[in-house]
């Protein structure tokens, strides 16, 4: 597990990309973190987001390795 500590004052676009055991994290289109790992991580079984203080997610989308959208949640639509 990787802890990512970034300053999120205001809305930000965070993108996590995992290809061939290499993780790339982008914040507003700029590379914020690169990491590789050895063991197979398995399937996605959940997503945990934690805020220190107040925080809010607008949406989360996840695609598989073939580009198929398998999770799409727009939290602001449910207000």
Spatial ordering of strands, largest sheet: 1-2-3
Q: How large is the share of residues in beta strands? A: 35-45%
Bulk shape: globular
Q: Classify the secondary structure makeup into a structural class.
A: mainly beta
Number of strands: 5
- The overall pLDDT average reads 82
Elements, N to C (H/E): EEEEE
Major sheet: 3 strands, antiparallel
Q: Percent helix among the residues?
A: under 10%
Enumerate the spans where pLDDT stays under 50 for 5 or more consecutive residues.
none
Instruction: Determine the N-to-C terminus distance.
Output: 32 Å
What is the radius of gyration?
14 Å
- Give the count of helical stretches: 0
Describe the protein.
- Strand 2 and strand 3 form a beta hairpin.
- The mean pLDDT is 82.
- The protein has strands at 14-19, 22-27, 30-36, 59-63, 69-74.
- The chain is mostly beta strands and 79 residues long.
- The protein is globular and about 35 Å long.
- The protein has a domain at 14-38 and 55-78.
- The strands form two sheets. Strands 1-2-3 form a three-stranded antiparallel beta sheet, with no helix packed on it. A two-stranded antiparallel ribbon has the order 4-5.
Task: Give a brief description.
The protein is mainly β. The protein has strands at 14-19, 22-27, 30-36, 59-63, 69-74.
Keywords:
79 residues, mainly beta, three-stranded antiparallel beta sheet, globular
